[in-house]
Design a protein that fits this description.
Strand order of the largest sheet: 1-2
Shape: globular
Number of helices: 13
Organism: Felis catus
Radius of gyration: 21 Å
Pfam families: UAA
Helix content: over 70%
Structural class: mainly alpha
Subcellular location: Endomembrane system
Distance between the termini: 26 Å
Strand content: under 5%
Main location: membrane
Order of helices and strands: HHHHHHHHHEEHHHH
Largest sheet: 2 strands, antiparallel
Protein name: Solute carrier family 35 member B4
Length: 331
């Protein structure tokens, strides 16, 4: 029951979270900082009340380790959200972030001295080719859209290149953070909920440096059109409603993934998250009518097939099937 409930939370929370993020970014592309701050504040307050027991519970992992992890986590979150302000369309944003396997493998080889099978190298090659196709076609779209306005066309393309650089940096930093977490959990044991709280609470002072941008967007949100919230009947500026729903759905998404990691094998978690990304991508293309060519579909197919190959889902399904057949024979 709990795994099914967790899968429901992941799909409902994560997919709807992407929708509200795109609604926010389409109206105000530079709103990434206020979105990140709101998400961090909400999860930090919830964790302070229920996980840290109002600060009375001592952390199982020393704070100095969390300080390193938090620096990486804060940087990844801010950079990923800010990339939407650099001519990065939401579908490309999602596809690019799906390339985390590449970054994990590269850093795993360099830092942990890991070695992989030819099958895994092939899967990573597919993911790499898929991301390259989508990125290249998006670059052509930016160039063609910018050609109509020669004055700022080159600047728009440079902003897009900066956005790609930001996503690449965030991808590698996220992979490095994953390796750091892996080493910490081996040393101190798994404390995912505690890590979730400290990863969101400790970076809050860092938002002081982003205070002016957050304030400016709060003023812009106040000026947005009024919206009557269904069932409640309260009227609020629609951008604040989108932000509130984004924060709530982000929490539901994270909680769902947390339950899933404690109840299911890592293979199951990877498959659920990958399928969720694919559903979010399809919805973003259809509902928001984002430009998506046949080449984009081909690149997307490469990314998701490569991801499934990396998890060796077919081998695991075959193993499960043979085990079931053996059990049937015994009966």
């Amino acid at each position: 029951m709990r795994p099914a409930f967790a899968v429901g939370l992941v799909f409902a929370g994560c997919c709807s979270n992407v929708i509200f993020l795109e609604l926010l970014a389409r109206k105000h592309p530079g709103c990434g900082n206020i979105v990140t701050f709101a998400q961090f504040l909400f999860i930090a307050v919830e964790g302070f009340l229920f996980e840290a027991d109002l600060g009375r519970k001592r952390p199982a992992i020393p704070i100095r380790y969390y300080a390193v992890m938090v620096t990486m986590f804060f940087t990844v979150s801010v950079v990923n959200n800010y990339a939407l302000n650099l001519n990065i369309a939401m579908p490309l944003h999602m596809i690019f972030r799906s390339g985390s396997l590449i970054a994990n493998m590269i850093l795993g080889i360099i830092i942990l001295k890991k070695r992989y099978s030819i099958f895994k190298y092939t899967s990573i090659a597919l993911v790499s080719v898929g991301i390259f196709i989508c990125t290249f076609m998006s670059a052509k779209q930016v160039t063609s859209q910018s050609s109509s306005s020669e004055n700022d066309g080159f600047q728009a393309f440079l902003r897009w290149l900066l956005g790609i650089g930001a996503l690449t940096f965030a991808l590698l930093m996220s992979a490095r953070m994953g390796i750091f977490q892996e080493t910490l959990y081996k040393q101190f044991g798994k404390h995912s909920k505690e890590a979730l709280f400290y990863n969101h609470a400790l970076p809050l002072p860092g938002f002081i440096f982003l205070a002016s941008d957050i304030y400016d967007h709060a003023v812009l949100f106040n000026k947005s059109e009024l919206y009557q919230v269904p069932f409640i009947g309260v009227t609020v500026p629609i951008m604040w409603f989108y932000l509130l729903m984004n924060v709530i759905t982000q929490y539901v998404c994270i909680r769902g993934v947390f339950i899933l990691t404690t109840e299911c094998a890592s293979l199951t978690v990877t498959l659920v998250v990958t399928l969720r990304k694919f559903v979010s991508l399809i919805f973003s293309i259809l509902y928001f009518q984002n430009p998506f060519t046949l080449w984009h579909w081909l690149g997307t197919l490469f990314v998701f097939v490569g991801t499934l190959m990396y998890t060796e889902v077919w081998n695991n399904l075959g193993t499960t099937k043979s085990q079931l057949q053996k059990e049937d024979k015994k009966d």
